[in-house]
Amino acid sequence: MRTPSASPLSAVDRLRNAAALLCMLVLAGCASLPDVRYLSNRHLVDKAEPTIVSANGELDGKRKQALLDGLAAKAGDTDVLSKHVAAEEEISGQPLVAGNKVTLLDDGPETMRAMMSAIRAARDHVNLETYIFEADEIGRQLADLLIAKQAAGVRVNLIYDSVGSLDTPREFFDRMRAAGIGVLEFNPVNPLEAKGDWDINQRDHRKLLVVDGRIAFTGGVNISKVYGKSSFLQSRRNDPPPKDAADAAWRDTHMQIEGPVVADFQKMFLDTWQRKTGRAPQDAKYFPPLKTEGKSLVRAIASTPDHADFAVYKTYISAIAHADKYVHLTTAYFVPDRQIVDAMIDAARRGVDVRIIFPSFTDVGLLLYAGRSYYDELLKAGIRVYERKAAMLHAKTAVIDGVWSTIGSTNLDMRSFLHNDEINAVVLSAEFADRMEALFQRDLQESNEITLDNWRQRGLRERMREFGTRLLEYWL
């Protein structure tokens, strides 16, 4: 979501920004999510045969079974793995890609270091897509690096969201354009600057970096100074949360991916560029030959209102519906639809350990209270609810049954599912799930558990805030 820019804005700029955001609310259509209750039928995928591809093409039956058996042995449960593998393909229509190395990046500073290092090593091209690109010390450092790489003959393409980067001065992006970088402003606030259909309510909320077609990064991290300090160090100091979330260390999760699936992430970037400009970006070696780098099965999943297949939404519901042991979710903004809530409650009622970590403070107060308006219902169903202390929680992750994990840009809210371009990576790997679960447990240690008895003692003012924001949840 939004973070304040380091650069001061004039009164005219602030009025323009406020008017644009108001316009988004007024123009928001009454789109709706599909009825996906059929995904809760856990027998639909019993006989499904997953497709798995590698750097050398589709795996035959023998090699595919050997790979799945190896993963199942590490997961300790063949049936659980098989259900998740089959369910995934039923939803997305995309094959699993074998042979990937996946690195978990569990904080802002680590993520920024890894991305900067990859860009410095770039030899052919850098494709960066981000919701927020601030003109602060982090943003300026990255912009300088991108300009230097472009000057060195590396093709650089940048997509940034017009609303997400609304507070960033236009001169900041003009400087990169002048240096030869391809810069695309996604759905400009000003309709006169838009090409094709203009829909200010459709936002590019993705965070994606592809370097040389060989390394991809995705997750929740934007380009902003809030990722300059460690959230875990702030928690250990036991400092009280700052009054302004922009002054806090932000707790986020990102990932680095190497291997054949990087080509799928590259296609997603290039598709956005083509859809919004009507042409391909300037030539580069966007699809180099890729080889096996690791042992993780990965599926790249993107969603966009331009092609409303709701792949990420369906994937979340299916994964929760097919959970047998546990569902551990970390979410920054929780404004779900009824089907997401029902999937969680159904899982808890059949004995699945469902736990959710929410923020204890946020950059958008309305969203905090909208999420809390669900606590009573979740707690009564047996779902355990936690709030992350000290750091500003911005992660969007899930780990299920020790085999299924996802990291991406998608919040569990109506805006992500209906109006935004989003991107997630789903990983089927017991080793990676173990790392995700360890991170979840680490966050639990930095969180307060909310119990039903304590929650029901909150005051009337808090209840009224929750009630009021619940009425506005479609537009949040």
Which regions contain 5 or more consecutive residues with pLDDT less than 50?
A: 1-16
Let me know the largest β-sheet: 18 strands, mixed
Shape label: globular
- Assign the CATH architecture of the largest domain: 2-Layer Sandwich
**CATH homologous superfamily identity of the largest domain:** Endonuclease Chain A
Task: Explain what the structure shows.
Helix 11 packs across helix 16 (460-471). This protein is an alpha/beta fold and 476 residues long. Helix content is 38%, strand content 22%. The chain is globular, with a radius of gyration of 21 Å. It has 2 domains: 38-98 and 299-475, 2-Layer Sandwich (Endonuclease, Chain A), CATH 3.30.870; 103-277, 2-Layer Sandwich (Endonuclease, Chain A), CATH 3.30.870.
What characteristics describe this protein?
single chain, 476 residues, alpha/beta, Endonuclease, Chain A, 2 domains, 18-stranded mixed sheet, two-stranded parallel sheet, 16 helices, 22 strands, globular, disordered N terminus
